[in-house]
Amino acid sequence: MVIDMQYLNKLKLIIATGCTFYFSACTMLAPEYKRPLSPIPSEWNNDISKKQNGSSIDGNNVFTMPWKEVVLDEKIQHVIEIAFKQSRSLREAVANIESAKATYNVQNASEFPTISAGLSGNRGKTQSSSPLITQTYSATVGVSSYELDLFGKAHNLSTAEYEKYLSLQENQRSLRITLVSEIVTAWLTLASDKNMLELSQSTEISAKKTLDLMQRKVDLGVSSALDLYQAQTLYYQAQADIAKYKTKVEQDKNALNLLAGEIIDDKWLPEGLNENKKYLAQVPTNMSSSVLLNRPDILSAEHNLKSANANIGVARAAYFPSISITADKGLVSAALSHLFSGGATSVWSFVPNLTLPIFDFGAKKSNLDYTKSQKDYYIAAYELAIQTAFKEVADALARRQTIEDQLDAQNKLVQASKNSYTISNLRYKSGIDTYLNALIAQRTFYAAQQTLISVQLEEMTNRITLYRVLGGGEE
Q1: How far is the C-alpha of 398 from the C-alpha of 295, rounded, in Å?
Q2: Looking at residues 117-123, what average pLDDT do you find?
Q3: Is pLDDT of 340 > 80?
Q4: What is the pTM (predicted TM-score) of this model?
Q5: Is residue 409 classed exposed, middle or buried when 0-12, 13-18 and 19+ CB atoms within 10 A define those classes?
Q6: How far is CA 19 from CA 115, 150, 472, in A?
Q7: Where are the domains of the chain?
Q8: CB of 40 within 8 A of CB of 289?
């Protein structure tokens, strides 16, 4: 097809003029974006010692380091990798991101003219004394109803959709960080409950031996039935704990399987919680609160704010005229064989359309007021996200400040209660003291061991909590 170059030059001039108005008008109607000031102190108030045991991470790079440098245990790492592939929550997030990306691409395409080509034919016969058969063929190429973006409406719509897309991307990053934290916590909880189960079983065995011995003494008449009943209390308490922790172990496995998205093989599950093993690196604590601005949930809130800011420009553009253009250029011939030869006739059309808003009973003003209130809403949401993040970090740091002292004290309590039980039991066997004192000492030792396991779990989960609330790290 031969296309009139003069027509194409006119079309290029129209598009170029529209682009000039487009880029000059975008900043005219959309407000200049300014990040709100952080409504939090610049530093956390904590007195944590700079000395940190075990592996550590440079505070300046905590948000750019891989999660594998925080999670040190290979079994936990493997479960996390499974979850990244199989987690339905992540799949849902990815689907949402792809939908947002497609929406943005559709909106972005509206900023450019749609050029289409067409080929048609018409053949007819007149009903008269001298019937006449007529036929016409035409081929055209042109711009179909392109709206000149003189006031940045289409551009601001694209910006709003793009910011929504970025917001969903940050939500996915937040979900991955949360998933890492939840899997680590679930895996360590399973290990802790296995320790609790093992402790209950060993206590039951010890209590059963004492109970059998007490039963023989009662049968021989050298001990009272009260001693027998007292021995039974610890034995049955241990049996109840065994049943409880067997249930918890199975529930922990179910929770871990749900997080991972598939059944985890037993070889990747913990045998127990080993206090001498470094499952997690120590997360740094001497940093400014400004690092929270890199948290994905806060970045997501900021992208929503930017989207709302762009929507104000869209609402303002509604007050101004909209100009759309429909234009085409083509050839017409009475015979299809002559359509692209010298026998064809050139045809063209140029149809500009101007729409000027005059009176709409306040609809445009209401829409503009709505977009402004939405921006205020997202400013508040952004500031609340920062304040919430600051509280989460402050809470985690407050626990970090005391957990080491509690763990040290609990270890000493376990040793002291063990010594007390050993001596009390020897005094009972020597006939110096009553069985009740030996039983109380044994119960204290049992409870101290249970608390120690709980504190050990809390110390490790505090590390992964700090990793999460500080914004995690990159892959």
Answers
A1: 20
A2: 67
A3: no
A4: 0.76
A5: exposed
A6: 16, 8, 42
A7: 31-111+149-319+357-469
A8: yes
